[in-house]
Specification:
The complex is a heterodimer of chains A (about 210) and B (about 180). By secondary structure, chain A is an alpha/beta fold. Chain A folds into two domains: about 25-130, Methylated DNA-protein cysteine methyltransferase domain (Double Stranded RNA Binding Domain); about 130-210, Arc Repressor Mutant, subunit A, CATH 1.10.10. Chain A contains eight helices and six strands; from the N terminus they run ααβββαβααβααβα. Chain A has helices at about 10-20, 25-45, 80-90, 105-115, 130-140, 150-160, 165-175, 200-210; strands at about 50-55, 60-65, 70-75, 95-100, 150, 185. In chain A, helix 6 (about 150-160) packs across helix 7 (about 165-175). The model of chain B is unreliable at about 1-20 and about 100-115 (pLDDT under 50). Classes of the chains: A alpha/beta (about 210), B mainly alpha (about 180).
Chain lengths: ~210, ~180
């Protein structure tokens, strides 16, 4: 776009744009560093409603997100990060920044769990994303001890819906905090593995890690 | 907090909202940080740019959830950056540091003939009167179209064009001198 019919500025405009390009690489690095300092400051001062960070795991890189109350979402590697974050923006708040330091405890407890050195998670959790029914089902799920298993029918009964095993299965399938809320410990009656949001391979792997299989 | 932060911004055809809502703030910051940084370095110099950059995005974060989902986010964040740059200029004037000292502190040259030609030119931009400097910087550093320059400066599109034209006229004299 030019400045108008007066094209006497063409040369000047070129020079202005050239001056900008000349140092653009250096500036973009500076901008990236300033932005990283800013994200850290926003997290430290508690100005964001949600912070998130990638977390390494034997399954690949998980995405962990937390509110001021605790871990609110743990996403498997194949879930698209943008889609996950946009969902959080819509359902909770768009004030979301990346801040690895604020997810340090989540990272540590998951590391210990995957190394077989932790049997229960103690990190604070935020269950905002669960429906009232899912709340009950997942609360019942948290009662299943490390190394143990239960059935869809049993957790449905615990949740107050003895005939709601299909609904319980759905609630478990949409667990926003897999691994931490151990929905992998719920199997079909008769010992069949049933389903798993993160894939059956992982469900089997987790149960073997815990010595349940 | 400066004015203009929560003012509703009309949407534009270039608006990039997330599917069905505002993008997560981090994505918004990733998308616009380079433009904001470039604009601020040119407008206030590298020393004040860091503070202005932080203040710009902190103010944006406060107002962010109240923003309309179809807002023109780039024009909006540059409006805030422009206000912060003006605040910084006013503060610097109040501190009344001699020009030579400012140059020394900023590590930038006020004598326009010591650097490469394009540096001389941007040095001359910083010496322009407020509105002309804003218009030139928003146009060539932040890449804004005229109506968004007007938005950021809080004036009519016509006035923005005029400031830009006056600024360029003055700059042409500097470079041809």
């Amino acid at each position: 776009m030019t400045t108008g019919a007066d094209s006497g500025f063409a040369e000047l405009e070129q020079a202005l744009r050239r001056g900008r390009r000349a140092r653009s690489g250096e500036r973009e690095t500076a901008a990236a560093q300033a932005a990283a300092r800013l994200s850290a400051r926003i997290a430290t001062e508690g100005l964001a409603d949600i912070t998130y960070a990638p977390v390494d795991s034997p399954f690949g890189t998980l995405l962990a997100a937390a509110t001021g109350r605790g871990l609110v979402r743990l996403a498997f590697p194949e879930e698209d990060a943008d889609t996950t974050l946009e969902g959080l923006a819509r359902r909770i708040s768009p004030r979301i920044v990346e801040a690895p330091a604020s997810l340090e405890r989540v990272r540590r407890e998951l590391d210990e769990y995957f190394a077989g050195a932790r049997r229960a998670f103690e990190l604070p959790q935020d269950w905002t994303l669960m429906s009232a029914f899912a709340h009950k089902v997942l609360r019942a799920t948290c009662e299943i001890p490390y190394g143990g298993v239960s059935s869809y029918a049993e957790v449905a009964a615990e949740a107050g819906s003895p005939r709601g095993s299909r609904a319980a299965g759905n609630a478990l399938g949409s667990n926003p905090l897999p691994i931490v809320v151990p929905c992998h410990r719920v199997l079909r009656s008769g010992g069949n593995l049933g389903g798993y949001g993160g894939g059956l391979e992982r469900k089997r792997w987790l149960l073997e890690l815990e010595g349940a299989l | 907090m400066s004015y203009g932060v929560t003012r509703p911004i009309r949407s534009g055809p270039r608006t990039k909202g997330a599917r069905g809502g505002l993008p997560p703030f981090q994505r918004f910051m990733d998308a616009h940080r380079d433009h904001v940084w470039r604009f601020l370095v040119s407008a206030v110099g590298p020393t004040d740019a860091e503070d202005c950059f932080q203040e710009t995005f902190i103010a944006a974060l406060h107002a962010y959830p109240r923003l309309r989902r179809d807002s023109n986010l780039r024009a909006w964040v540059l409006t805030i950056a422009h206000n912060k740059a003006m605040d910084a200029h006013r503060a610097r004037t109040r501190r009344a540091v001699p020009v030579e000292d400012v140059a020394a502190v900023d590590g930038r040259s006020t004598s326009p003939r010591t650097n490469a030609p394009d540096e001389t030119l941007w040095g001359a931009v910083r010496e322009l009167p407020d509105r002309q400097r804003s218009a030139v910087t928003l146009r060539y550093m932040a890449d804004l179209p005229h109506r968004d320059i007007a938005e950021a400066m809080g004036c009519s599109e016509e006035a923005a064009r005029r400031s830009l034209h006056e600024g360029l006229t003055k700059l042409r004299k500097v470079v041809s001198a």
